[in-house]
């Protein structure tokens, strides 16, 4: 632990995720949570009080008051990363940006340009890489002892609760924007390859009838740079009786080996009088210490290490740009009915 | 049982499947197995003796000796249905043709023409329709109480044993020709819709290196006539350590309901000193009676009913033609890299 | 089919199970359903009309009107087999008696004596033996290639729906009487051994509080005649949200092999808006023919074969007596707190 | 982290577990690994060099050289805890003793007496309590919102690899001594109750024939202090083809709720050319930091907290004594064929 300097970090966006990141920073001895940014006044006041740090209405105000920050976590809604990220980068801060980097290639390119011009680093928060199920498979695949990837199939679905009740901005998103950044990032990481072309199809019927005019389900077929194939399926209309709000199953097939990775079932099924569910352990509070634990916490800890000078292989802004371009190409293919090239 | 007339049936092709169909006919009291056709002399002699019926080297010889047949089962290899089917149809026989109807649209059209000109009926042997797991889901979906189908995902894979050891003619086939007729037929039947366009991708690397120059894995994305989407994934390179030689999982998502249909696990797992396996009950001999049981036997029994005058809704030659055209379109899309229209 | 004589059979008890057995007899060409016995007048009239056969209020009346019966199916409630079985046996009829043979050793001995004095045969309806999952494992174990049985663990539970809503007579039964005859019969059959001693424990708290004064759950540990061990666990208080009304998992461990047999999950999971369930295929109507199918139907067909002279190895009255004695010993051990010997 | 005093700890026994505990202490900033004890000279020299701390041949030598220790981890073989634990306790050290506390009640009582006379604290290493699957269920059960426990069934088995290849001292142990301390501790913790009586049965046939004269499988039925029932089944003869070396499934049934806890399947299944396996994540090295993670590491961290003055509810020596008495009673019942009382 010797030689650690103290990362001084702000969190932009104090919703569920932003608050969690703030707490993760507060519990990390190598970091200091300096301040928050949150446009909503009641939320801002509440969170500032809970966490005991100043909170500002916008990034400009933040930067005005704090000229000694070393990093920022961008946890604004998916479509609202650009302004915060560009300003923080321009101020010389290293960034942790929630996935996806942006929901348009234009925004993603603007962030990338700002990061590269400022010479800062930006990590994109593809947190599943910190899930040991995936990281162990990645480690095994990287050894090449099981051959190269032939083909991956990833089903990542949500119950209809997510677009109809959980997200206020579902109509501006889609199962592709909300879910496929995860499954595509993992597919790229596992195969060590990038997508070069995509063909997508979808259905738009159930959610529009429920007042959410977006896609019910999207399927996308990618050709990868190593000539392997990746199929991503994501739906937003699964029944709410499913034992978990998300349904995630990923398969990797190599020359000699098949991996079946099930993320939703935790191993603990509880049947109550009226429903069955899988207990979820994604992020939890360690009972004795009160510390948060789980994959996003590990991600924040790695971001702090980066801020403190470590060389870690994390998903960077160029990678985030590729994912955004790819998901944009999914929507382009949905519109055109044709395969779409994904530019590097 | 009153009023049943006796179906008089020949089986063309006396391999594993043909012999099974012949036994199924012999155990059906409403049918008579009249004769067999088998080009290989040793197989012909052996099976003729085992079953106690005459066996001929070709269909012409069969028809010469037996002018009172009412039906024929065509169980020649996948690519060799045409000649047998056309001759038998022309002779006025109703047909049960193994799936796929043919492996070229040209052959499938020739069989269809022969059947329609002769005014006979032809059933295509999509035997999974007799699997109660699928037939019950079909019955429930047909009631429309769960809404319409939004999207189906069907993974039907084989271990590498199938193309490298089980099939002598794997290089002339593919995971698409061998497996997708099953999953596509089921998807059509469950949604009550036909495919109108397909986009496919595949990988060709592992099997060619093993001396079998065909596709390792194929994924195909179909737009259906009801605007639902069907994704079929089929691989031929799964490891032989899998607990079953095939790996089959089908998902159907409707407006309100999700069905997850797992075909490979039987519910009985056996672990021996050296391997784990799922016991398989596809076709088995009933212990007391020695009678064959299972889905293909039920299919033959229904074919006999048809021969004896019943009106049953069975997959007909036009349906078989559509499936063949669709799988041909899968291969066309693999070649062109573009979505391909499927003509009705 | 030649040489088959016609079994002439009556069904005593026209509840859910009795009606099903009656239909099974009517659809079997080697049997004739001659008449029914049912004490409840409205049920009797309804079922007589539905099935088109005469129905009587009691066995005496039945025997008075029909002196040419060859067999009877005893489908009265569990505790009410004795009188019907004894009278039918005394009249020279072969019997199929629902499991358990009786719910007291005294009743079971009276039936056994009547059967043996009359020189008739009696089959006890342990229908799981007709479940191919068990019969295949039994066949494999009987070959001894996997060594002998070391130890079996069988969990067979019901949701609380069964004792509180489905059965009117649950207070006169228990999870041991209702469920363990199945799991014990299978354990005996799989190991080819009989129980020689049992120790049992149970809990009585939840069901009494719900107004059903019987055991919530019972566990029983048997020493078998081959020195293997069988553990049976049965509960009647599982939550009604479980995907199936029963929960059945049986494990067999031999010298070299483990079998895990899961009966409840069918392979088809359906998630609706409000609940998840496993489709059940226990007894179903074959769509085309309208014929009943399933394990109890196969059992009835075998009983008909027996009536028509076949030699089939079926669970007989002595076996049924052993099972009843064993379950009675379970309750004796629950009362005494000591292991109880089971007399042969 | 302020105010933490430094725990100064020795590890007694430098086998697989002892080395892991030593590394866990070295990576904990609130602890110092002072020294090791290991009787085997080559192991002692190797581990001393790897860890960079002095290593002694026995506890006396350790205590002679280090009079400022605050705690000791006892990781000698199961049957060899007594001497080390008693000496360290007498020297005023707080202890973490691997489970089971001892393999005879006499030894366990001697350790308990030494601990209580010295006024030190002793934690017994029932590490599954640090498994979040169990700790979350425990937390939910403790809230009493799901009612009280009715009945638990715990299957915890090993493949035959464990007694025949992994353990040199299997003949001095049994599946009861090796596995049931885990499942009994969990059952006690989940129900918040202690065992008052046990009845056990077992089989001794396969392992003796393989040269390991101990029990193949043991089943034990406990009456608990709250009148709930616990059934533990443990076998040591499962086939080595199982996807994990251990097979662990625990069920808890309460008034209203059922928990099914599966520990062996991790969610990631890998099929290679020759076998299927579940990846295991029990203890793993965090890739970036090189730090060990997993439930035993969390346990050591809690022990360090205890050493540094925290009040934590950990399994203490009295609890360890009860578990040892209970497992001894299992063996007494195996010998007597009678239920055995477990004294508090």
TrEMBL record, chains A, B, C, D:
InterPro entries according to UniProt: Gfo/Idh/MocA-like_OxRdtase_N, Gfo/Idh/MocA_Oxidoreductases, GFO_IDH_MocA-like_dom, NAD(P)-bd_dom_sf
Pfam hit, one: GFO_IDH_MocA_C3
MF-aspect GO terms: nucleotide binding
Boundaries of every Gfo/Idh/MocA-like oxidoreductase N-terminal domain copy: 8-126
N-terminal signal peptide: none
Top-rank taxon, per record: Bacteria
Record-annotated GFO/IDH/MocA-like oxidoreductase domain positions: 134-256
PANTHER family cross-referenced by the UniProt entry: BILIVERDIN REDUCTASE A
Protein name as it appears in the record: Predicted dehydrogenase
């Amino acid at each position: 632990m010797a030689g650690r300097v103290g990362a001084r970090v702000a969190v932009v966006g104090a919703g569920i995720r932003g608050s969690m990141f703030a707490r993760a920073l507060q519990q990390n001895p190598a970091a200091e949570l300096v301040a928050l940014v949150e446009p909503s006044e009641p939320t801002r006041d509440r969170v500032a009080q809970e966490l005991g740090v100043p909170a500002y209405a916008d990034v400009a105000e933040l930067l005005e008051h704090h000229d000694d920050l070393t990093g920022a976590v961008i946890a604004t809604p998916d479509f609202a990363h650009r302004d915060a990220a560009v300003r923080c980068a321009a101020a010389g801060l290293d960034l942790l940006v929630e996935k996806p980097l942006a929901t348009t290639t234009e925004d993603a390119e603007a962030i990338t340009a700002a990061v590269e011009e400022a010479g800062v680093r930006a990590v994109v928060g593809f947190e599943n890489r910190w899930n040991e199920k995936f990281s162990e498979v990645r480690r095994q695949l990287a050894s090449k002892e099981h051959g190269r990837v032939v083909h991956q199939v990833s089903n990542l679905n949500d119950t209809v609760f997510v677009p109809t009740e959980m997200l206020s901005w579902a109509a501006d998103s889609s199962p592709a924007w909300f879910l496929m950044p995860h499954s595509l990032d993992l597919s790229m990481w596992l195969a060590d390859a990038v997508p070069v072309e995509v063909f997508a199809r979808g259905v738009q019927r159930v959610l529009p009838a429920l007042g959410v005019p977006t896609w019910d389900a999207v399927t996308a077929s990618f050709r990868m740079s190593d000539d392997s194939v990746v199929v991503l399926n994501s739906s937003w209309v699964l029944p709410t009786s499913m034992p978990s709000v998300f349904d995630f199953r990923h398969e990797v097939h190599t020359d000699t080996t098949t991996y079946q990775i099930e993320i939703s079932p935790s191993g603990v099924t509880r049947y109550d009088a009226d429903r069955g569910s899988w207990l979820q352990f994604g992020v939890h509070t360690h009972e004795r210490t009160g510390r948060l634990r789980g994959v996003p916490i590990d991600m924040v800890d790695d971001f702090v290490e980066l801020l403190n000078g470590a060389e870690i292989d994390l998903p960077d802004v160029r990678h985030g740009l590729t994912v955004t371009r790819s998901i944009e190409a999914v929507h382009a293919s949905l519109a055109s009915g044709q395969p779409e090239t994904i530019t590097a």
